[in-house]
Specification:
The complex is a heterodimer of chains A (388) and B (537). Chain A is 69% helix and 2% strand. Chain A has 388 residues and is an all-alpha fold. In chain A, the strands form two sheets. Chain A has a two-stranded antiparallel sheet. Chain A has a two-stranded antiparallel ribbon with strand order 2-3. Chain B contains 21 helices and seven strands. Helices cover 69% and strands 4% of the residues of chain B. Mean pLDDT of chain B is 82; it is low at 15-26 and 532-537. Chain B is elongated, with a radius of gyration of 34 Å. Classes of the chains: A mainly alpha (388), B mainly alpha (537). At the A-B interface, helix 6, helix 7, helix 12 and helix 14 of A face helix 14, helix 19 and helix 21 of B.
């Protein structure tokens, strides 16, 4: 079964993506660690962290593409799952500080000492153990997505309604996490991390390892997504995307399929957040901002929804552009560019970069044209390659 | 009471004897004695002197006490003379008011300590109790009510007797009652009367005074206090309900105002316009521009600035709405998720444009005179701007309903909404109607911006804070139904304000969001759902 899934889910584009990813994941850390700083080939550590951040965003984009591109669920609250995963990791890192904090309290994080709390709230128990935090990274976003999705899909909240209530969800969490008495550091969030699993979080080696891990997580996430969308389950998901009522009338339990893929996607987003936090060194409530979630959706749209590779690519391209523009003299124009990007992509490039390239490649191939394929493309929707 | 009087008289007599012995007896009388007593130097003497000054009723008393308060009162302990140094440095004899060339060499400041300062403040209140200015009298009475200083009793009673104005009379009566409550030697009947006065006043201050009363009282008084407290607490509870209700209505009107344009674009047309909040913002900035123009060119028109801004805001936001519809949204009909993303992009563009033109900081939008201030009903305060916004919202709502119902554009809008192709085959230019409908929704958002500029910060982020709330209102009320939006806005507003006292502002808001998310599970199409085939379309 397993080799079958692997061969089926790896077409040429996917294989190329994995190879490039593996090359980057190994090469960049090596260039960072093994070359002297004076060398022209040297990759500075800040770039490693920066690329690590992009890779985490790519995982988030992948998770959004899985539900939006293949199941038609547009979540405007995926940043919430990302941030929850990040907070779970952040809590572990906070506990690792131990007595090295400003106030030197061996148990309580600095902000709790500052707020004059006497003991650790119950929901912080266990976060001193890495395995517990790692489980929570998956469990908390997954559980929230499961409960939320169970309620929403069962009562057939679809389309823009779902988008709006997911936005309300992340907004509510934003407000909650801003509160000091919520016990997650309020406005400042969690920061000032020292080490992870005993390794200094600032050191080059740890950064390189985190980058490599992020690439690995992206690759695994990508393979999981490919496995899902190329399986029979994936066919049902696409059917739900294109004609939900029809699929239901054919006897499929639409809500179960949606719930499964939504929860899976939330777990992926949580992992992305957990890898993101040690690399940027902070997690605060602004990660819950609805604007962040929408921005993540536009990465997917830019890269090409329903292509997986495109989602990852879109996240990296858009964020690279963001870094370039917001750090240069063009900073005031970045929001203009981002806004224009939203409009331009939806109007002019509905298939995204990868989708458009695919369509162009297809049209230059000797035609095995069948009506269904071209009809699907008319809708601005890219079907995954049929299983060979 | 009599004991205190007696001791005071004795003291005064002693002081007079003392003063008489020390200074040439050129002037004598309560006022002059009191002034001279400042020269004794001890705090107790100064305090005594302040009391007597007030009782003397001399018009110069106020000057002396103010000077004492400001540290401009000087004494010469040898000659027992007291001097006032005016703000401009001129010296005068406090007792006679005659100008003096310079302070004597050994003159020193009359010192103040905290106890004396309080006495001085109370004394100033006592002096203003007799002021010819009505406002000052009432204010002074309220001051006494708060301080309930026993020494003020004679003055308050005198003022009460002389008072003609009903409001001032009530204030004096309450001040007198407050004093009596705390006066240890007041007779029980007087205290019972005082408690009745407090009960009639029935506000938080009265409750606080009753609670702070000394506990050693006769049984009758204790009972009366308990009864009065219970009654005040009951009435306060009712008033706080009313107050919450009013806040809720006020918040509901703001929500309705922000959501009403969305009810047109989202509710009627089915277009998700994430740039809706930015239309509100544009309306607010239009108000700002109008006010700036009026300030620099026609300051006299300032009170009319909002009236001028309303149509302008409608035009500005409406025109931009039509532009957006023609250039972007019309290509995306039938693709709601893409519309959502594109309009989000537009909202970023508009925000950044406004930030570039007007700067990122808050802009000052003034309240015209008829919108500032407040009035009281019972125990609650109603501000004029909130009241006007409520009225304005209802007026806009009624106008919009009438427009949809009675004008030909309204008819065409409803026709296109219900069945686009049928409407087109009846000769309605559907794309023109689309543009106008979107323009109408945006224009109303612009009008909302004019009103919201009065109560919120006018900044490029103004729209962001309303967009989620507006969507919640429309979704909660039911899409495609203006009445649903009305009911949705007011119920959310009121629910929010009633939750706030228990949960706090932020948790209340979170609770509302969670409740709406749960509510949508139960009724996915909102409170007032459209029935029939339109639903699944």
């Amino acid at each position: 079964m397993t080799p079958h899934i692997l061969t089926r889910s790896l077409d040429r584009g996917a294989a190329l993506f994995l190879v490039v990813l593996a090359a980057l994941g190994v090469l960049l850390p090596l260039l960072n660690l093994l070359t002297p700083e004076s060398s022209a080939l040297h990759v500075p550590t800040y770039l490693i962290s920066l690329f690590g951040k992009y890779v985490c965003y790519a995982i988030l984009a992948l998770s959004i593409d899985l539900i939006w591109g293949y199941c038609g669920i547009l979540s405007l609250g995926h940043g919430a799952f990302f941030a929850l995963g990040g907070y779970a990791m952040g809590m572990y890192l906070m506990r690792q500080i131990g007595s090295r904090g400003v106030y030197g309290n061996p148990v309580l994080p600095d902000f709790m000492v500052f707020l004059n709390w006497k003991e650790l709230p119950w929901y912080w128990y266990g976060f001193d153990m890495f395995w517990f935090a790692a489980v929570m990274v998956l469990l908390v976003p997954g559980l929230l997505a499961f409960c939320f999705g169970w309620l929403a899909f069962r009562s057939r909240v679809t389309g823009v309604y779902l988008s709006i209530i997911t936005q309300a969800m992340t907004y509510a969490l934003l407000l909650a996490f801003f509160r000091n008495d919520f016990g997650f550091g309020g406005n400042n969030g969690l920061t000032d991390f020292k080490d992870i699993l005993g390794f200094n979080i600032q050191s080059d080696g740890t950064r390189a390892a985190l980058f490599l891990l992020s690439c690995l997580a992206l690759a695994i996430g990508f393979l999981i997504c490919r496995a899902v969308v190329t399986s029979k389950l994936g066919k049902v998901l696409i059917a739900i995307r294109d004609a939900e009522s029809r699929t239901r009338f054919l006897g499929y339990r639409v809500e179960s399929y949606k719930l499964f893929v939504f929860t899976l996607s939330a777990c992926m987003a949580g992992v992305a957040g957990a890898l993101y936090v040690p690399q940027v060194g902070i997690i605060n409530p602004s990660e819950f901002a609805p604007a962040n979630s929408i921005e993540a959706v536009i990465w997917v749209a830019v890269g090409g929804r329903g292509t997986l590779v495109g989602a990852a690519l879109g996240a990296i391209v858009v964020n690279y552009a963001k870094t370039v523009f917001t750090s240069g003299p063009l900073a005031p124009y970045w929001l203009f560019m981002l806004g224009a990007l939203f409009v331009a992509v939806t109007l002019l490039l509905p298939k995204g970069i990868v989708g458009t390239v695919n369509a162009w490649l297809d049209s230059h191939k000797p035609p095995p044209t069948d009506a269904a394929d071209s009809a699907a493309r008319e809708d601005g929707v890219i079907q995954p390659k049929p299983a060979e | 009471m009599s004991l205190i009087h007696l001791s005071r008289l004795l003291f005064a007599a002693m002081a007079i004897a003392w003063v008489a012995a020390a200074t040439p007896p050129a002037f004598a009388g309560p006022y002059e004695d009191a002034v001279a007593q400042f020269a004794e130097g001890s705090f107790a003497d100064s305090e005594e002197a302040v009391g007597k000054l007030v009782a003397s009723g001399n018009p110069r008393a106020a000057d002396i006490i103010t000077a004492l308060q400001d540290g401009r009162l000087y004494k010469d302990e040898d000659t027992k003379l007291v001097f006032i140094q005016a703000a401009d440095g001129k010296i005068s004899n406090a007792a006679t008011g005659e100008a003096v060339a310079a302070l004597p060499d050994n003159a020193s400041k009359v010192r103040l300590n905290n106890k004396l300062r309080r006495t001085v403040e109370a004394a100033m209140a006592g002096l203003t109790l007799l002021s010819p200015d009505l406002d000052k009298r009432v204010q002074a009475a309220q001051q006494v009510f708060k301080s309930h200083d026993e020494t003020m009793l004679p003055t308050v009673e005198a003022a009460l007797k002389a008072e003609k104005n009903a409001a001032a009379k009530q204030a004096f009566a309450e001040a007198r009652a407050a004093i009596l409550l705390f006066k240890s030697d007041a007779a029980d009947p007087a205290k019972l009367d005082a408690i009745a006065v407090m009960k009639a006043r029935g506000d938080q201050d009265a409750l606080a005074l009753l609670t702070a009363m000394p506990t050693e009282q006769s049984a009758a008084v204790t009972n009366a206090v308990a009864g009065a407290k219970a009654s005040i607490e009951r009435s306060l509870a009712i008033w706080s309900l009313v107050q919450n209700g009013w806040y809720g209505l006020s918040l509901g009107s703001v929500l309705l105002l922000a959501a009403i344009g969305l009810a047109i674009t989202f509710g009627v047309m089915g277009v998700i316009n994430m740039a809706h909040g930015e239309m509100v913002m544009l309306g607010a900035y239009t108000t700002f521009v109008v006010q700036e123009a009026i300030r620099t060119h026609y300051p006299a028109l300032f009170d009319y600035s909002l009236l001028i801004a309303v149509p302008l805001a409608f035009l500005v936001a409406g025109a931009i709405g039509v532009l957006i519809e023609r250039s972007v949204i019309r290509f995306l009909y039938g693709r709601p998720l893409e519309t959502l993303l594109a309009t989000w992009g537009i909202s970023l563009l508009l925000q950044q444009a406004v930030r570039t033109i007007f700067g990122a900081n808050n802009r000052e939008v003034g309240n015209p005179s008829w919108m500032s201030g407040a009035f009281d009903i019972g125990q609650i305060t109603i501000t004029y701007n909130r009241l006007w916004i409520l009225c304005f919202t209802l007026a806009v709502f009624a106008l919009l309903l009438a427009m949809l119902r009675y004008t030909s554009l309204g008819l065409e809008m409803r026709a296109v909404t219900q069945n686009r192709r049928m409407a087109a085959s009846m000769g309605i230019a559907t794309s023109r109607v689309d543009a106008l409908t979107f323009g109408l929704g945006s224009g109303i958002a612009g009008i909302a911006g004019v009103a919201l500029s009065q109560i919120d910060n006018v900044s490029p982020n103004l729209g962001q804070s309303y967009i989620i709330d507006s969507f919640m209102v429309v979704v909660f009320g039911g899409v495609g139904n203006l009445w649903g939006t009305l009911v949705g806005a007011f119920s959310l507003g009121i629910a929010n304000k009633f939750l706030e006292p228990f949960a706090g502002a932020v948790l209340g808001k979170i609770a509302i969001l969670v409740l709406i998310i749960l509510f949508i599970q139960k009724r996915p199409r909102g409170l007032f759902a459209l029935k029939g085939r339109a639903v699944e379309a």
